[in-house]
């Protein structure tokens, strides 16, 4: 391998070690020294890749979010109604978060607190772009529905609808998370989120469009890609 490939391989090993360490010590409680030990490198080497611990946390979140790009493209090729695509795309975010408690906690910490500001500037821009990609995809689905005369609202109302849907998703995640003091068990089921999102869209005038829409959404969700390699490989795999 050349220097660039070696650098990337070492960074993957460090991120894998960081995730293993966070799983063992907690998303907030792991230290750079712990990661260096698990990755079999010096703390100085870590800082050659990451500006800070928060930058490392943001990098893990970035890897998790990058699955979304491939998934959006795949979802757009499926034979789904606009309502089904919208609901499935947001529900797939919940599926992704449910797969790994620590990655989910890191994402909530980085995305919804000031921690993201402590990441490197380039990382902040990348994270923002990934968040905007989801918003644009959701707004694009609603635009398709408008063009098909399935939704009679303006662009401003579409943006508001997307914001409300994202807030609904966040509410489900926060209220049903095992990391909260009093999780709400009935919100843990994906069907509850599907119904809540469908009701939100119906209130705006976008109907299901298919009698078996729940089944079709669940079948689409089963095609969601596996965890990224960094989330499943051993720290010394690279």
Gap between N and C termini, in Å?
Answer: 12 Å
The helix/strand series, from N terminus to C terminus, equals HHHHHHHHHHH
As a percent range, the share of strand residues is under 5%
How big is the Rg? 19 Å
- Which percent bin holds the helix content? 55-70%
Structure annotation, total helices: 11
Q: For the residues shown, what is the average pLDDT?
A: 89
Taking the sheet with the most strands, its summary is: none
Secondary structural class: mainly alpha
Tertiary shape: elongated
Number of strands: 0
Low-pLDDT runs of 5+ residues are none
Oligomer: single chain
Task: Jot down its keywords.
about 240 residues, mainly alpha
Describe what this molecule looks like in 3D.
The protein is mainly alpha-helical and 238 residues long. The chain contains eleven helices and no strands. Helix 9 (155-176) packs antiparallel against helix 10 (190-203). The model has no long low-confidence stretch (mean pLDDT 89).
Topology (elements, then pairings):
Elements: H1 3-25, H2 32-39, H3 43-47, H4 53-65, H5 67-76, H6 82-98, H7 101-111, H8 121-147, H9 155-176, H10 190-203, H11 213-221
Helix pairs in contact: 1-2, 4-7, 4-8, 5-6, 6-8, 6-9, 6-10, 6-11, 8-9, 9-10
Short description:
With 238 residues, the protein is mostly helical. It is built from eleven helices and no strands.
């Amino acid at each position: 391998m050349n220097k660039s490939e070696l650098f990337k391989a070492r960074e993957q090993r460090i991120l894998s070690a960081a995730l293993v360490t966070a799983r063992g010590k907690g998303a907030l409680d792991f230290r750079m020294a712990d990661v260096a030990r698990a990755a079999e490198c010096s703390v100085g080497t870590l800082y050659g890749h990451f500006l800070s611990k928060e930058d490392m946390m943001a990098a893990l979140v970035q890897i998790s979010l990058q699955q979304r790009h491939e998934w959006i493209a795949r979802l757009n090729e499926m034979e789904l109604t606009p309502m089904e695509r919208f609901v499935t795309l947001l529900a797939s975010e919940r599926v992704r978060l449910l797969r790994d408690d620590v990655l989910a906690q890191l994402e909530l910490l980085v995305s919804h607190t000031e921690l993201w500001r402590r990441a490197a500037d380039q990382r902040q821009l990348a994270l923002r772009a990934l968040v905007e990609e989801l918003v644009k995809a959701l707004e694009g689905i609603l635009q398709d529905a408008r063009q098909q005369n399935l939704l009679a609202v303006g662009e401003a109302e579409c943006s508001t609808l997307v914001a409300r849907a994202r807030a609904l998703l966040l509410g489900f995640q926060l209220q049903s998370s095992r990391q909260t003091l009093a999780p709400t068990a009935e919100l843990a089921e994906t069907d509850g989120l599907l119904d809540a999102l469908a009701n939100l869209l119906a209130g705006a005038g976008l109907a299901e469009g298919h009698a078996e829409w729940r089944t079709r959404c669940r079948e689409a969700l089963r095609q969601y890609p596996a965890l990224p390699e960094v989330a499943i490989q051993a720290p010394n795999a690279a």
